[in-house]
Amino acid sequence: MTTARALVVDDIHMSYGDFKAVDGVSFEVAEGEFFGILGPNGAGKTTTMEIAEGLREPDSGSIELLGESPFPRNLALLPRMGVQLQASAFFEKLTAREQLETFGSLYGVRSARIDEMLELVGLADKAGTQEAKLSGGQRQRLSIACALVHDPDIVFLDEPTAALDPQSRRNLWDVLRAIQDRGKTIVYTTHYLDEAEVLCDRVAIMDHGRILALDTPARLVRDLDAATHVILEPTSMPVTEARALPGADNVAVDETSLTIATRRPAPLLAALAERGTLDGLQVRTATLEDVFLQLTGREYRA
Q: What are the contacts of 48-53 at 24+ separation with CB within 8 A?
């Protein structure tokens, strides 16, 4: 059985003068999928999203959104898509409920739907609070509620957890999971690699306007074939003894830890267990962040 496609991006290009913001990007997103677009600053993520949403016309290439072209502005698609931009603007002095009622009125949304959305994003107890008095995390959740109030089939979220504290980020993860559980398709960008690894069914890693890798987070990590790092207390054993352990490929020690890199963790851990040196031991395997850094480099991006 073939899964229906919510979004098809085919060889899109977009330049601003001599700068190629998007340079031959292609991907598909299945209905109900949580799809992430990752990349450093200036990679082309937001431009790609804006083209997919129909906000920009690409120089070349094509977009198929829910079976139709989103550009020029397709009025038939507007009720079926929700968009949350990087910077959200709300109406001054309106409460959370009034903000949602205003957005919902554009689509003929009933008041029961407003209550449902406030409950979904955890703002039912803040319904009468003015937007300016909400915390950063609460405003982000309100912004997502505004994008969902008309019950769209596909939702575009551009860095929805940016600048949030860890607790607010985790709370928002629950909201995003609840959205997908309702059968919605989610396309989003983020700088948080741990977040993408947890939430996304598949991710595309972009840089310099191109997609460098596209797969499930687990497969991208597995294909990296990176070493496992076993971290011990620095005084747990001499460096010479650590280097002689079965499976030890490289050993590094500093004031806080002794780290053994290995591609055969099982015999190494067994040997450490025999020596009774498992107390305080940490095992670090490769993550999506390792894949990201290998593909895009470690240099600072302004």
A: 48/9, 48/12, 48/22, 48/206, 49/156, 49/158, 49/187, 49/189, 51/9, 51/12, 51/14, 51/22, 52/7, 52/9, 52/156, 52/187, 53/81, 53/83, 53/156
Do the beta carbons of residue 295 and residue 205 sit within 8 Å? Answer: yes
- Average pLDDT of the segment spanning 96-116: 90
Domain of residue 251, CATH code: 3.30.70
Q: How confident is the model at residue 302 (pLDDT cuts 50, 70, 90)?
A: low
- Whether residue 176 sits in one domain with residue 254: no
Question: Is residue 103 a contact partner of residue 166, using CB atoms and an 8 Å limit?
Answer: no
Question: Which residue segment(s) compose the domain that 85 sits in?
Answer: 5-94+144-222
**Chain centroid to CA 72:** 28
pLDDT for res 1: 41
| Mean pLDDT for the stretch of residues 54-59 | 95
Residue with tokens 């003894």: 241
pLDDT for the residue 294: 87
Residue 231 has pLDDT above 90, yes or no: yes
86 & 155 share domain: yes
Go through the chain and tell me how many residues it has: 302
